[in-house]
Amino acid sequence: MINASKSEKTLVLFVDHTNFLKGLREDVIVRPRNAPSPVERSAPSAAEASTSSTVLVAEKETMQNIQSDDSDSDDFEFYDSDFDAEDGDDDIFADNVDKSVNDNNDKELCDEHEDEDALEDDDLNLREEDRKHLKKKFTAFNPEIDMDNPSFKRGMKFSGVDELRKALTTYSIRNRVKIKKLKNDKRRIQAVCAPGCPWMLKASNDKRRTGGFVITAYEGTHKCEGSFPVKSITSKILTEKFMHEFRDNQKLDLKSFAAKVLREYKMCPERWKLSRARKDALLQIHGDEEGQFRLLMDYGQELRRSNPGSKFFLTTNSVNDPQSPDYKEHLATVYWSYDACKRGFLAGCRPFICIDGCHIKTKYKGVLLTAVGIDPNDCIYPVAFGLAEVECTSSWEWFLTNLRDDLNISNTSLWTIMSDKQKGLINAVQKVFPDAEHRFCVRHIIQNFQRAGHRGETLKNDIWAIARSTSVPKWHRSMEKLNVDSETAYAWIEELAPNTWVKAFFSDFPKCDMLLNNHSEVFNSYILEAREMPFLSMLETIFYKLLQRNETKEREAKKWPGRICPKIKKKLDKFIEWSNECSVSPAGNFLYSVSSHEFEKDYSVDFNARTCDCKRWQLTGIPCHHVIACCRKDRIDPENLVHSCYTIDTFNKAYAYKLAPLRGRAFWENMNAVPIQPPLFTKVMGRPKKNRKKAPEEKIKKGVKVFTKAEVTIHCSICGIADHNKKGHEKYLESIAEQIQNNIVGEDDEIDIPSIVEHVIPHTPNPSMDPTQKQDSMVYRMQVEDGEHVPINRLLGPLPENAFVASARDNIPHSRVRVTTASSRGNLRGGRGRGRTISPREQATSNAAAHQGNTSTCRGKGKKRSVQATGTGNTHFPDAPCAVRGRRAVGRGRGANELPDLNVEIFQDHEAQEVPLSQNAPADEDI
Are 484 and 459 in contact, with CB atoms under 8 Å apart? Predict the structure, then answer.
């Protein structure tokens, strides 16, 4: 070969040690164009024949011709015979399709004939290059494709013994045959079918040639009857097969799961096996529930890293472990909030917070405390979350204190809290938010109302009518109707403070007239799926739900037309329709009088102060139908009178802040914290309850409210006490004695844990950071807007002097005083005819009578005349003057009477003024 390479430029030489080319098709061999067919030359001697090689040499003359033809190029042009124009597509298909592959997964009745050369022992002692060629002759088993419906043949290679065992189990289930393993270890497997069936499989470990498990013998014919090997369908197989189903729907019930298994395998295992498979699948999806508590500190660090400003802190209880001298830290409380949600709430939401608690539906239980706001479209806006062991006064005080400090709230007077009448919640709100308005859910008030024995649709409708009263006259009329229907119910309702549940007494600053705590209930159902997961998985699910929600809300707002949000637009359209029945009388200065068919027929509307007597406009910030009727009169667009807290711009401010996604758990920073154990819990008998206990009126079956005997309260015929009958009277007495002896807390008594309050993180309030002082907060903007709308000042003071008189005062002549001889001498004359002078005795008598409140009459010889003086009798003057309150002295008779040295004190508006009357006093008509 070396000598040939020196003389010839191109030499084509094929050396085949294993007769590899003998089994190949001729068109697979690539050779130069116009090259002759290869010449087969075999060695003549027996020694050379032992090498089992064939030398293919091309003729020298032909290679020289090829060299001369392609002198311009250094490389030869090769072509594949599969692309020869003379061959048709059918020939290519027949040459390249392996007919031994069963695409339809049908059973083949014919015997399989395999080439046994690959399994000859003579080929074990081979070189490395030859062994690589030999591996290509083994058929490899692909578990990703072939495991669904496996088929075997001699020479098939598996990666390990576990893969072969799994394939045999799947084969048994798919073909409904019972496969029995006679030998089953790490080195070999021998499997047979039922007695009398020729089916057989042998496999062993072949590390030297293939590095895996190889089937050495196989007979694939079955002559047995089909069976249902349900035992072969283990929970592990079901978990691996239906893992993707549980990832898509983690709440897949067992009935639906059984239907999927039956559709897949044409048989269904027992219910407990399905339940175990579902449990294992969820465990693989979420991880170990107890192990997740050890990752809480790492999760909190990742949350603070990806979303700066977010809060996450927890507290633990140290419990002595009897198995070790060390103490274990068990989770007690957790508080967390997201920075984007807090900023969006303060920037675009009203100062209205709904708080509620819901139960976590895992074996460790616990209560999830939530604070939910209202966005400009009247939808939920989550703010903060907390986890506590129980719902009590201390747990609510702990949560509300952290919420107040987290939002930097110093002035609580502008905030409104909506809640149910939870145990201890009222006291906690009064302590943490002392100046805030606290409203109660009317639905829970009605439930307590009915539990007190006041049942019936009439009383229920009366309660709703009272709660919906937006004005005090309506409230009085609704209360009177309730008093007529039931005096005991009226007495029960009178004990409730009206400013906690009646619209007429609500504060109009938060621009919200909600009577129900529906926003908290909606959020609790929104995270219902997460509440059934392990704790860390629940945190991640809630986080990504809010992450997607914030982004979705921003995209929705870009499609909204107009100035205000869609839900507010619907409310405005409803009021526009109602305004058709109102008549308007303008009064000027944007003041109107509106008449309607309602209880109060006449209403006054003031556009300057943004008020209406029905109080709907003040409570919600949305113009009522009376205001819209006035807008129609003056051609004003009602949308311009809607409060700015409902605009689309405000909505965009609320959802302008986005949550940054978290990294995977493998990237979390290890905090090397103390291992946190799950919360302490007591396992109870029976299946844990996941559904809330519903009231009798809430139970609906097929669209109809159902009342059963179980809802009827029974009474004992011996003692008359409810909740037990005559047969259970003795047990009731025993339970009462046991409660007294053990001092057991009753159902209505509150279970409090004061140690929870100690977990509150110290916080120093900064008044400058209060939302009421920050100009970019919604509370601040609402204060400014309310200050801009004030009523016109109608207090004009006392009436002024007549303008005509004031202008002509200089031209008015002075009054003249008539002086006579009698008046100049000090005599008194009255009436016509001759008079006489009053003697000092008569004057003293007259003065004494006036002082005592009596009347004195002076008579003369002429016409009858009298002087009447009245006094209070409680004023002492030395000369016994006449005291006149609120009016002046009256002189009766014709002519003027002169009273010498008589002082008259006039009292008007509690101001005393002494008026001396001289001897030359004018006549009565001039006084």
Answer: no
CB atoms within 10 A of CB 663: 11
C-alpha 679/C-alpha 285 separation (Å) is 22
Question: Do the bridges between strand 352-359 and strand 416-419 make them parallel or antiparallel, or are there none, so unpaired?
Answer: parallel
Classify burial at 436, counting beta carbons within 10 Å of its beta carbon; exposed 0-12, middle 13-18, buried 19 or more. Answer: buried
Confidence band for 419, pLDDT divided at 50, 70 and 90: very high
Separation between Cα atoms, residue 304 and residue 306, nearest integer Å: 6
pLDDT tens track for 120-156: 444 445 566 555 555 556 788 888 888 888 889 888 8
The answer to whether the beta carbons of residues 564 and 648 sit under 8 Å apart is: yes
Mean pLDDT of 757-771: 80
The rounded distance, in Å, linking the Cα atoms of 849 and 870 is 8
d(CA 534, CA 342): 26
What CA–CA distances, in Å, run from 602 to 67, 582, 769? 115, 10, 45
Looking at the predicted structure, is the pLDDT value of residue 860 above 70? no
Which of 446, 458, 360, 310 has the alpha carbon at shortest distance from 689?
360
CA distance 488 to 249: 52
Q: Pairing relation of β-strands 902-908 and 882-885?
A: parallel
Please write down the long-range contacts of 5-11, taking CB distance under 8 Å and 24 or more positions apart. Answer: 8/60, 8/63, 9/67, 10/63, 10/66, 10/67, 11/63
Q: Which two tokens stand for residue 97?
A: 């399709």
Read off the pTM: 0.65
Contact 491, 618 (CB under 8 A): no
Within 673-776, strands assigned E span: 676-677, 700-701, 704-705
